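A common beginner's mistake is to predict each chain separately and then try to dock the pieces by hand. The better habit, illustrated here, is to supply every component at once so that their relative placement is modeled jointly.
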Amino acid sequence: GAGVSQSPSNKVTEKGKDVELRCDPISGHTALYWYRQSLGQGLEFLIYFQGNSAPDKSGLPSDRFSAERTGGSVSTLTIQRTQQEDSAVYLCASSPRTSGPETQYFGPGTRLLVL
Amino acid sequence: AQTVTQSQPEMSVQEAETVTLSCTYDTSENNYYLFWYKQPPSRQMILVIRQEAYKQQNATENRFSVNFQKAAKSFSLKISDSQLGDTAMYFCACGNSGGSNYKLTFGKGTLLTVNP
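With all components supplied together, the output reads:
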């Protein structure tokens, strides 16, 4: 079946602009995660959605970052007033969340470059 | 809080040889899972192998196996009969099995190059 998809694949923007990154999880997966991968670093957790529960936003680095998940499926990560330090690859992952930390299935990521 | 440390930023191995990637972790949880993910140049993170902490037997997946030393909080990955397609960044990760957020904590990765 189809895996996790993300769009756009690459995004170049100017400092101060807003950007929206989209994630389509695997159908039927109730858990959705956003991670950020900066150059030379591992993945940094940003936000977690599980079904209709309130999201865990504990990893968002500032209030310029927000995310929503509509209808328990597609998710959008929004970065307002982008800064150069926001340049990174943003990865989305989903899992069936039947019990415990199941394997997370990752999308190909969106590479964001802020000029 | 959890931390994951990968002390080898880069490694290389000859095709058909065996290589071991190191990972140590720290967690206050009693129940947790450990993972190795592979990220080739395409950026797609792919699960290589996973280990439940409550299981003493080391996980194996074809040419990939782990050496899980719970007391030492060590979780190394052994790749046997290395292939050119194994060239990638390898990330070690830890996730809780309790609570409500199963987010993963990742190490900084090891870049593995398999040479012909």
